[in-house]
Amino acid sequence: MKTSRFTLIVAAGLAALLLPNASGQVKNYRDLQYPTLPKFEIPRPTVFTLKNGLQVFLMEDHELPLIEVTARIRTGSNYEPADKTGLAQLMGEVQRTGGTARQTGDQIDDFLAARAANIETGIGADSGTASMDCLKADFDDVFKVYGEILRAPAFAQEKLDLAKVAENTGIARRNDSVGSIASRELARLVYGADSPLARLTEYATVKAVTRDDLVAWHKKYYQPNHILLGISGDFNAAEMRQKIEAAFGDWPAGPELSAPALTYRKEPAPGYYFIEKSDVNQANIVFGHLGIETRNPDFFPVQVMNEVLGGGFASRMFSNVRSKKGLAYNVYGSLGSDFRHPGLFRAGLQTKSSTTIKAIEAVKAEILGIIERPPSEEELKRAKDGILNSFVFHYDSKAKILAQQMTYAFFGFPADFLEQYRANIEKVTIADVSRVARQYVHPDQLAILVVGKAADFDQPLTSLGKVTTLDITIPPPADATPKVDRSVAALAAGNETWAKVVKTMGGEALTKTTSLRSAASVNLKTGGQSMTLKQATTIVFPNQSRQVITTPMGDQTAVINGEEGFMIMGGKVQPMPAAMLQDQKKEQARNLLYLLRYHDDPGLELIAAGREKLEGAECQILATSLKGVESRLWVAPDGKVVKQAYQGTNPLTRAPGMVESTLSDYRLEGGLLIPHQQARRIDGEEIMTITIESFEVNPKVAADSFQQPPG
Q1: Is 360 a residue whose pLDDT tops 80?
Q2: Was domain 488-706 assigned CATH 2.50.20.10?
Q3: 241-260 b/e with 16+ CB inside 10 Å = b?
Q4: How far apart are the first and last CA of the chain?
């Protein structure tokens, strides 16, 4: 296609108008001249309050045929009792997934999917949310469901149970990420571990939450006079007001509530703290102390100070610690604020283990430097320009403006706070930045936390001063295994039943067993889907094992060699995390073949723990304990173990649960009677079926099978 001369002329003319200083060439980009930013008018939403106290914000936006709805509810996890930490998170999730009296959560999923619509609920630290978005044509139908979820959720028990599983999975995995550990534990050091601002959800607190708790929470906090409702999109404000009146006007107001007073540590806890993470080759280092509240008059000069210290590529932290000294991929530092309580002064970086001490000293120097060396005129200008040039992104959509207006109203800030922001940033001087740095940055109050492998540090952390080691072990859930009677009679009956099991399962051949090798097909079931994997296991008694699982993404290998363990995934070798190694060793100690191999171990305790009929057979239940690891075995009259149960870990989610394995299809292999079929359930839900395809007793095992390869 040819370009007309007229088009070229117009394009050139536009370029001349748009390019700065287009009439003359400049030799350096620093000489470019830009016009003063024009004044701007931020549109304001229509605001009104229903008779029941529901405050409404409407913002018309006819660019697209879409409507978005957001509710802010005066509640939050900061309100929950310590012994039920996690209640707010569970309530916020099950409010949506648990459905309503008219529709189940799954039916609502289908209803929304058919309309490309969305409804979400949740609860954060200091507010709850309920949002929806849909096409304008579907608004009435979707808004009806949204209103039912907001006003009268059903909180289906099965969805609460599912949410608890997910929450427990999160607890089980909370020590996987070094960055998450550092951020979480710094907050606990500064605010205090018992503060609502830093409390941790535990297995026990999740278990303590009931459906009645969710219902009571909703009844207490989800009242119209505790809610701000915002709607933006393609609608007529007058018509939308009628729809809101129809949906929520008959909702009776509840009693007035105020946010509970937040408790947190007021006195600093300075010092060096350390968490050992032996499976990483980098150290994550964080520094912190109490920050300020957003309503502090010095909020604006603090923002400029933050930009100078650690706000971008040209900040002191980035320029000096990363670029000049090469000690980090990313480094940051800022004095944080929050609407209802002090935020955190937080600085940190991730560095090679071999430069840990150097990195700490480098960041400390920059923190001290922001106090001792006020910004230059160039630094001040660059910081203010960086803030102001990004300011437009605060109001680049009407939905974003509406959300900000609701946030200001929610926390009691003036409606023109956004306009004040720009004007107040422009007023900040070098003297202001210097003053707030001296007033609010306290090097002597810093808690300095290092997470990493101490053996690889360039110097011992103690070379900097006294070090406190933190324990981040996850408290295990209460053991749900029934207690047993350890009477002489119960012990005698247990040993008698065990003798029958040993004779049936192999007798003398068990004692002569030195190694085992098996290949199996594993059918996993999760999320309503199934997947078949291959599993190869080699065991050399007493304490070596190698398991290779073949998946569509490649092989995953887990090896235990005495007191050590490692994994190979994607060709990469890494130490087995301590928690996983501990779980694997427990699995080993309760493995049926291991129990049988060491059937005469003096430390093996066997107690008759009652009887139960399984598939028509009267079974004797044996409570076993070896090395402090307990399990229960169901022994059929012929001496075969047909079921095993114990408090263990879900291998898919790593969350705790009651594991039950049903054993069948016994076959004689090398003098041992081996079950070739195993169906495993956790907390009543079937998660896998294991089918043995080959089994060897006393195979030859290469000496290097359990040695960690270089990697």
Answers
A1: yes
A2: yes
A3: bebbeebbeebeebeeeeee
A4: 57
